[in-house]
Amino acid sequence: AKKLGKDQFAVFEPAMRESFQKHLQMEADLRRAVLRHEFELRFQPIVRLRTEEISGLEALVRWQHPDRGMIPPMEFIPLAEETGLIVPIGEWVLREACRQAARWNSRRAGQAPLTVSVNLSAVQLERADLPRLVGSALADSGLPAECLIIELTESLLVDHRPETLRRLEEIKALGVRLAIDDFGTGYSSLAYLRNFPVDIIKIDKSFVDDIGDLPAAAALTLGIIQLGQALQLSTVAEGIEDAGQLSELTDGNCELGQGYYFAEPLTSVAMDNLLFADPSP
Ligand code: C2E
Ligand code: CA
Ligand code: CA
Ligand code: CA
């Protein structure tokens, strides 16, 4: 790639220059954040819709910036992907999620173990050592592979290379399950359901949002649930915010769900309380 010379920089409009400088600053901040471990995880319960018992947790990353406060993932994941910093960040997320889930499960002895779902970026899947990393995160934490779910987005599967499929199969061979995130928002959903070793479909929040108001959204949601059943996949509805949405989904036989109606993403301390608080009056 050609380097930007001084004179090329001069053609930038002031607004462009400002946004370029912001971008550089953000990149420097993000590099420092990796070195100083400025990331935290939140955990959102995934609930069995019929009984409302917790079946698992989704790990969601946050950046605790020293000056700017808590930065949500949508504001730094794209930059992290562009710069490759998603690789060390993603490794930390995976290891920390497995470690916490193993800790919670050891305290829940006698109860069904919780699953933990970890979001993976396409950039992480380009790395040949990903299956080894997943195996090492499981071994180091002691979390059984059956308890780990890797979430992939549709876009990741659309422009795939043969290595991607091989890597996913290696990860599946460990006993880890794969989920398709934001299902229904891409454009070749059905093709990759046939081609990829997927276990779980996560129905995008946009369908759930409109389920009570738009007959088309309700019909599509029910269609996705039935598709999942026909293929023997679990279905998880995302972004459930009210009782009306919950009852539509339960009536449609959706197995699992998550959303503010049940709980927001929680700190590990808040999750400790939710899972182990004494049920005192
Ligand atoms: P996602 O994987 O689709 O995660 C669900 C998002 O919806 C989360 O936002 C969650 O907080 C939010 N959410 C859950 N329930 C509700 C609800 O009832 N209403 C509304 N309005 N929102 C709800 P969050 O935590 O800001 O994460 C945004 C996205 O960032 C995630 O979308 C995921 O694509 C990405 N992301 C988060 N953590 C990671 C990570 O560790 N690695 C990678 N590669 N991406 C991540
Ligand atoms: Ca997700
Ligand atoms: Ca999603
Ligand atoms: Ca909406």
UniProtKB/TrEMBL annotation:
Transmembrane segments: none annotated. It comes from the Bacteria. Residues 23-279 form the EAL domain. This is Diguanylate cyclase (GGDEF)-like protein. It comes from Actinoplanes teichomyceticus.
